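Write out the 3D structure for:
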Amino acid sequence: MKSIITKGYDLKFFINLFLIILVVFLVFIFIGAIKVYHTETFTPNMNNNNQLVPGKFPISDTQPLLYGSYNVKKNTNVTKNNDYNIWKQYPVYPSSYKQETNNKRVWTTPDNGTCSPAEFCGTPYEKTEQKKDIVSNPIPVDSKVTRINWWAANNCE
């Protein structure tokens, strides 16, 4: 009689052990399947549609980051600026009823008086006049065109 009870106990133990090992194995398989389909790359592909595509090789390796948006200086050595004189480049407008704020939309240079370290303010880029956004006029309310909010759908880009 004792041998039947001990055999039953051993059978329960082995079944429980088998189930635990099976669950752990299935969890590892599931985690492995997730990791296979998720890879960190810097080029868009089917698995991750990120927009962090690098620039063209020779230009992105030899030119500064904002090349093309701002003109690059010939001499790009660091300046003798320090924290006591770069504050002049940061625009501060007096308060008025004209609704002018310190939020400039278009900068002629990416240096706005907040460079860190201060020696980099005014270093790589020349002042470049930027293109302003062209905002189209809204269409009349009684127009017969397809609309998206306030603008005509065929005029949207």
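The helical segments are 2-37, 57-62.
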